[in-house]
Specification:
Strand order of the largest sheet: 1-4-3-2-5-6
Number of domains: 1
Radius of gyration: 19 Å
Length: 165
């Protein structure tokens, strides 16, 4: 009996530890997902970032967003891979992992009619990425076309903390 317990303990000790941050997961962004997302984050400051694997500025911006998320745990961070060029889940997940966004709520356009998805988010959006939408606690929306400066995001986040008091 002692040998079985010792063998079991050795087996458990030899197993690799799970990564602390956990693997990133992608949810399918399809028709109706935008309203679902807005409903699930209502009343919380939420940063929604649209990006793509083939987008050069996005590759620079994602790690900055990962640092922002770590420094601002009171802000819900949502990423949506809205790349115009279809890509694999593994490429998107790899980029999110390297950027420190594993624990963010991560989505990927999964409807073949991407124009419809963009229209649901904003009828005026032509598909340019990166694009960041800042949703305040009270539902006020601000959109940043192109790369979002970290200082602008931090100022917005600080304003969310002030309005919560």
């Amino acid at each position: 009996m002692k040998h079985m317990i010792l063998a079991a303990m050795l087996l458990v000790a030899s197993l690799p530890a799970a990564p602390a941050s956990g693997p990133a997961k992608l949810r399918s962004f399809e028709r109706g997902s935008w309203q679902q997302l807005l409903h699930s984050h209502a009343g919380r400051p939420t940063l929604v970032h649209f990006w793509g694997v083939t987008c050069g500025p996005c590759k620079v911006e994602l790690p900055q967003l990962g640092a922002f998320m770590k420094q601002n745990p009171s802000v819900d961070v949502v990423t949506i891979d809205a790349d115009l060029v279809p890509n694999s889940d593994s490429a998107a997940l790899s980029m999110l992992q390297r950027a420190g966004l594993s624990l963010a709520e991560n989505w990927m356009f999964s409807d073949g009619f991407a124009e419809r998805l963009r229209y649901e988010v904003d009828p005026a959006w032509q598909g340019d990425i990166p694009r960041t939408i800042l949703i305040s606690r009270n539902g006020t929306v601000a959109t940043i076309e192109g790369s979002a400066e970290p200082s602008v995001l931090q100022k917005w986040s600080d304003g969310q903390i002030t309005t919560a008091k």
